[in-house]
Design a protein that fits this description.
alpha+beta, 8 strands, six-stranded antiparallel β-sheet
Length: 531
């Protein structure tokens, strides 16, 4: 059970206790039994402090800090060794060189770039250590809050302490209800604090190692972020790329930063939206929209629509979950299918943008545009959603192939699909498909041993990114899918050709010949990941 699951169970106990009515002579004993039963349930659910143990986190942080200098030295030595074994003739010009770039020039440039990149490894490891130390401090505070609440509930609530005379029991039980509600709220808060600390740690670890591709023996991203996942139980969450509450890594931090950058007036409005959210799920969607950035009026319309009852045009709980396009594709197979044979890349980018921009997702998936307040024809009807998705995919194709925005996109025949450089440009463009503030690059590799691709893709996903993946069944890439999350070591993907979600096993990804829902024999040719 995840930290978020425990928190929700405790919050349900509080909700049940708040339903208790007036305590009278006829109700005092049933209410007392209900309170004692609730406390026993709480103790069984929250009998252990929220993981991980701060001492364990700090121990791991100390090991990272200790080995940070050595990690930089390893790679500096690698560079020097490579330089030493290359024949001297490689470095100089050979007779007949016209003065352009020679093999030696290219070798020097390559070695220099590698050396420069190597110097970032030590600081990255130090950043991991710092993030873990902060995480340990947050967990210590969460555990202290848990300990105080758990001790008060365990010690103060005992059936034998309740006065036997009903007239004496009434004020005692009345106070007891208030004390128990407060204690359980504190317990739930402790697990919530721990849950937030885990999510923050994953986001910070992702920032510390963003853009660095490391050999197996220095896999910062997999080791550090994987440790946090293991401590928190997130590995058991079916949405393994999330923190158990629906927030992707880094979302809360971007939302906090955007909130802090607002004017006092707008900040007060945004905070009111968060405070007035009907439930935690709707609050998380507001946080996600806040993380994306934008004007306060659009955010207000988005929050207002989330809080509307379904009979007044609001969303059902199922439709709320389906603002995540991967949930929509799971529940409506084929609903988010590419409109023609050339738009697999642009359809993947539309899906990426919906994941990173919930207001855009609301427009495509429900027909309501928070930016304009306009209701689009068809609403949530599946055929209308499919039509809107297809229109957005065609617009995206124009962006990636025809350079509609000067400096962004590329002139490339649409009949040949989306080029990887066009996808990278769109992911990093203003109001593009990627995470705000991120820039992206593309890499293409022959499909022979995709271990390096696997490391870079999973590191990006664990940091809260989605990754367009170029794949093929022949001598060149012929299709684009979108990596949206992790299921253990395996990759969760959205495939626009079928409009479905599925999973690629780790070994199949690395060694090739994996299956999609409609075809087999696919291999990885490259990916678009953060720089």
């Amino acid at each position: 059970m995840t930290l978020g699951d425990t928190q929700k169970q405790l919050e349900q106990v509080v909700a049940d206790l708040r339903q208790i009515g007036e305590i009278t002579i006829s109700t005092v004993w049933p209410i007392a039994r209900k309170v004692v039963s609730a406390v026993r349930k709480v103790i069984s659910v929250a009998t252990e402090p929220p993981p991980p143990d701060p001492a364990t986190v700090r121990d791991v942080a100390a090991r990272w800090r200790e080995m940070a200098p050595a990690m930089g030295e390893w790679h500096a030595n690698d560079v020097q060794q490579a330089q030493n074994i290359i024949p001297e003739t490689v470095w100089g010009r050979t007779p007949g060189d016209p003065g352009g770039e020679t093999t030696g020039d290219k070798a020097r440039t390559s070695i220099a770039n590698f050396k420069k990149r190597s110097t970032t490894i030590g600081p990255a490891a130090t950043g991991v250590a710092t993030s873990l130390e902060t995480f340990g401090g947050s967990m210590e505070k969460a555990r202290e809050r848990w300990h105080n609440a758990f001790a008060s509930l365990k010690d103060d609530v005992d059936w034998n302490n309740i006065p036997k005379a009903p007239w004496d029991a009434i004020p005692y039980v009345r106070k007891l209800v208030g004390d128990v509600v407060h204690g359980v709220e504190e317990l739930a808060g402790a697990y919530g604090d721990a849950d937030k600390a885990v999510n923050t740690a994953k986001g910070e670890l992702g920032k510390a190692v963003e853009g660095i591709t490391l050999p197996d023996h220095t896999s910062v991203a997999a080791g550090a972020i994987g440790s946090v996942n293991n401590w928190s139980g997130v590995k058991d969450d079916p949405d393994g790329h999330k923190d158990g509450t629906g927030l992707r890594p880094g979302v809360q931090e971007r939302a906090d930063a955007n909130l802090a950058a607002m004017s006092p007036e707008d900040r007060a409005k945004a905070q009111a939206m968060l405070d007035n959210a009907k439930d935690e799920a709707r609050r998380n969607w507001i946080v996600s929209a806040l993380a994306r950035g934008g004007d306060i009026d659009s955010l207000q319309r988005f929050a207002d629509r989330l809080n509307l009852p379904p009979e007044q045009g609001g969303l059902t709980d199922k439709q709320l979950q389906e603002l995540d396009p991967t949930e929509y594709a799971r529940n409506h197979p084929g609903g988010l299918k590419q409109p023609d044979g050339t738009t697999c890349g642009s359809s993947s980018l539309v899906t990426a943008k919906m994941i990173n921009d919930p207001m855009y997702a609301m427009k495509v998936l429900t027909g309501y545009d928070p930016h304009t307040g306009q209701e689009l024809p068809g609403g949530t009807d599946t055929d209308a959603v499919t039509a809107r998705f297809g229109e957005e995919a065609k617009k995206m194709h124009d962006l990636t192939n025809n350079a509609v925005i000067p400096g962004w996109g590329t002139n490339w025949p649409e009949s040949m699909g989306t080029p990887p450089w066009g996808a990278a440009d769109e992911m990093g463009a203003p109001n593009g498909a990627g995470v705000p503030g991120s820039s992206y690059d593309w890499t293409l590799h022959p499909p022979a041993g995709a271990a390096g691709d696997y490391r870079s893709v999973t590191a990006a996903v664990q940091a809260g990114q989605v990754v367009p993946l170029f794949i093929g069944t022949g001598p060149y890439p012929s299709h684009v899918i979108l990596v949206t999350g992790m299921d253990g070591d395996n990759l969760q993907i959205y495939d626009s050709a079928a409009g479905k979600v599925s999973t690629i096993p780790k070994d199949k990804f690395i060694n090739g010949n994996f299956d999609l829902t409609w075809s087999g024999g696919w291999n990885v040719w490259g990916s678009v990941t953060p720089k």
